[in-house]
Amino acid sequence: MAPRPLTSQEIDAALAELPGWEFEEDRLRRTYSFAGHFPAAAMVLHVAQIQEEMNHHADLLLGYDAVGVSVNTHSVGGRVTELDVRLARRIEEIAPSHGARP
Ligand SMILES: C[C@H](O)[C@H](O)[C@H]1CNC2=NC(N)=NC(=O)C2=N1
Fold this sequence. Notes:
Elements: H1 8-16, E1 22-24, E2 27-33, H2 37-54, E3 59-62, E4 66-71, H3 82-94
Antiparallel strand pairs: 1-2, 2-4, 3-4
């Protein structure tokens, strides 16, 4: 079934369970900080693996010791859908294994 854009109430409810994530410019966003570059790069690769599995892809920005994640759903014209929330939850699950700072 095609995803539909979430209402602002649905986005608020999802964000309440996603600490550190915010809704900005029709996207879900979070920046993760790491102990250095390799753990940040490993996080990017792990997220890429999840994204391929889900066939849903965020924009990832790799810095020296940080990874920025920004996602919405292109197929509904760049709005936030349940697919974005599911991807954010999957990323949250793996972040601690890379030593992401809370
Ligand atoms: C053809 C393929 O299913 C689409 O291009 C997928 C791939 N990844 C995607 N990622 C995101 N963020 N939004 C999409 O609509 C999307 N669509």
